[in-house]
Amino acid sequence: MVLLAGLVGLGAGLAAAALQALSQAVSGLTLELFAGYSPRAPSGEWSMLGELRPILGGFSPGLLLVVITLGGLVSGAIVHAIAPEAEGHGTDAAIRAYHHGGAVVRPAVPLAKLVSSAVTLGTGGSGGREGPITQIGAGLGSLLASFLRLSESERRMLFVAGMGAGVAAIFRVPLAGAIFATEVLYRGGDFEAEALVPSVISSAVAYCVFDLVGSGLFGAGAAFEPLFPVRPGLTFDDPLLLGPLTLLAVAMAAASFLYVRSFYGSQGLFRRLRLSPRVKPAVGGLATGLVALAIFFALSGLGAKAQQDSLGVLSTGYGLLQELLDGTYDCGHAAGAVVLAVVGLGKMLTTALTIGSGGSAGVFGPSMVIGGALGGAVGAVMQALFPSVVSRTDTFVILGMAGFFSAAAKVPLSTIVMVCELTAGYGLLLPAMWVSALAYLLGRNWSIYSEQVLSRLHSPAHRGELVVGVLDGVAVGEIWRPEARELVAFPPDAPLSKVMEAIPLTSQTVFPVLGADGRYCGLVGLNQVRRVIYENDLGALAVVGDVMEQGVRHFRLETDLSVVMAEFARSEYDELPVVDEESGRVLGLLRRREVLAAYDARLARLRSGRA
């Protein structure tokens, strides 16, 4: 599995490089050449194209609308002609395939996702590359497992390894990518623990392959550097800062709620729209462009720089995020904070329109931009209110990213690690833990990933593994009490006719056999009696000892119910004795239906989180 995980990482790293290169090529040949708009990239991102000169000499709002609308049309045509399951942001499709589809992905899906996502992002659709590469990496893991005819559990491990490898490569976060893949499948804090080591291996390989391709083939950017270089000196040296950061966590949780509601509201609206699914991404693209231009012209009073920054609501938006992190963006004045708030809220809307209409792009990247922009705006307010405590707003940008995505995606642990990897240090580890945990707890009731399940207990992928495990640690004495009515038992020398006389007078289906000292020594069931009931001569002569079954399993009050359930699965009896360990005396009979009732009750408690 280690070797296969490495092979999945190799494929995911190459696929991530192809996705980035292709989306950059589409962007250069459409947005830059025709519309005169060049989306800015993070400082740590390699590029295959240099700066291109616009054909018309400057920014053209009209051509921007044409490009983004045609991009949606082409993307929708590719998806619905090749692989309809590649529609949308990709991560939910991967989660759904894991839980409900046996981690099986059709061969056409990775290719369709790669091309359609490059077209959507390259023509200005609002989204990220991380969601698509998650689905592509998962598909590569699934295809390798299917080709080698591995078991379903092994295919699931390679599937998760591919998810982690894709995120690790394209976002430059190898450890966070590995943890993210095991964490994002569940919204209740559970993990896919057995896939963690394969995911770590594949993420390490993918990270190296992606950076080597960028630095080796395109010669741009330093390999093995963080995607977003930040200003030096990011440290946590004042416990009083936790006060303003608590307010940041509350704001990010509220923003994540708005993000999720707007995203699924847009998705529901486009589903009700009576148009071909191939055309809907074009409508979403047109609406995205109109929103972006409305913001662009609305901010004209704040200057050209504010207008340029406002176009971060299109494509990935990483350029503005980079300015916030390296200190070149001044959000310490009112106009800067206003622009950040408008971009954060506008990015929510454009992402909802692009992906909710069926466009192929991820929600992970926009979450970083939204959290960073809104975090910067909150930081500007906190700096004005508490100047002696809040000395740097870029701290709020980074922790806003962490808090927003923790609340929106239910992945607090991987997000905390991601902050350390994005900043290439651990100076903000403690405040990242604080903000991410608070935002996660405040946002427990919503998630941007609708296909997440609460825990492994709720996943069809693990249903067979957990049937007996539900009763692990529960003893017989916790769910069973002897009945008030007298237990009917017989000695070995009792005539069998006495048993036949007792059958109509009791609800028992089995009768314990007790020795002279009162200790349990066997069992007589209706099946044994039935064999002789019509043999008059034999029935008159037989005694209980002749037909009793010895060695039948009995239970103690301390016996684990998982053992009891396994025994009932093998036994022909619906009742079995409960025996006192010291005296050997039969305390009563435990019925199969009592164990099943305990199982149902325990399962209900586990599902509600009360056990």
Describe the structure.
The structure is a single chain. This protein has helices spanning 2-35, 61-82, 91-100, 108-122, 130-147, 152-170, 174-183, 196-217, 242-272, 280-298, 304-310, 318-326, 334-356, 364-385, 394-409, 412-423, 429-442, 463-466, 476-479, 496-502, 526-532, 536-541, 544-547, 561-570, 592-608, and strands at 510-514, 520-525, 575-579, 586-591. The two termini are 34 Å apart. It is built from 25 helices and four strands. It is elongated and about 110 Å long. It has two domains: 2-463, Clc chloride channel, CATH 1.10.3080.10; 467-608, CBS-domain. The longest helix is centred in the first third of the chain and has 34 residues, at 2-35.
Helices and strands in order:
Elements: H1 2-35, H2 61-82, H3 91-100, H4 108-122, H5 130-147, H6 152-170, H7 174-183, H8 196-217, H9 242-272, H10 280-298, H11 304-310, H12 318-326, H13 334-356, H14 364-385, H15 394-409, H16 412-423, H17 429-442, H18 463-466, H19 476-479, H20 496-502, E1 510-514, E2 520-525, H21 526-532, H22 536-541, H23 544-547, H24 561-570, E3 575-579, E4 586-591, H25 592-608
Antiparallel strand pairs: 1-2, 3-4
Task: Write a concise keyword list for the protein shown above.
single chain, 611 residues, mainly alpha, Clc chloride channel, CBS-domain, 2 domains, two-stranded antiparallel ribbon, 25 helices, 4 strands, 59% helix, elongated
